[in-house]
Write a structure and sequence with these properties.
Radius of gyration: 18 Å
Structural class: mainly beta
Helix content: 10-25%
Number of domains: 2
Largest sheet: 7 strands, mixed
Distance between the termini: 16 Å
Shape: globular
Length: about 220
Amino acid sequence: MSDEIHRYAGDRLVVFYDKARCIHAATCVAGSRAVFDPERRPWVDPDALPPTMLSRVVETCPSGALWYARSDGGPGEKPPPFTRVRLVPDGPLHVHGPMTLDRVPTRGPGTRLALCRCGASKTKPLCDGSHVEAGFSDPGTLDGEEIHPPEHGPCKVVAIPNGPLMLRGWVEIRGVDAEGDQRRVHDQVALCRCGASKNKPYCDGAHNKIDFRTDR
């Protein structure tokens, strides 16, 4: 895996790209093919879009592989006041907000992460797209009652060795079903990352039954 950070400098904004964290969600390409064109070299043209519009596109990158720095005095990225987790059907956890990821160094603003929940990623706890090859299947729905909105504040994400992802601090979890968005709020929650829980996205101890092993 390459540790290289690619830097694409425009007149008013610099785009940074960490290829090792990219999960090919392609939100950047969908947001502006004029800026992000995988068939072009260099594939990023920061001057093809006004900086404020481009910054909004970059901020849609769920893994944090893309981030930016304004060189025109404009505002930088501002995360939401509390951490949000979105369940991707048959895919990872998209985490956005003020947080720290325990024991795992990340580059960039650290406010957007894609975390593995299939158990197959080679870069745990980060997602590397292995859920596709592994055939991971989960609709990304939630059970239980919706409760009050969270308090403001950071969240600490701890990848328990051979166990779940423990989120400590106010966090909002969002899922989707036929009736629309679902939302649950917790001040501490354990989320499955082995792929075997029967109560996804929550941990039910299945990692012990399948002898899930990871040092990160």
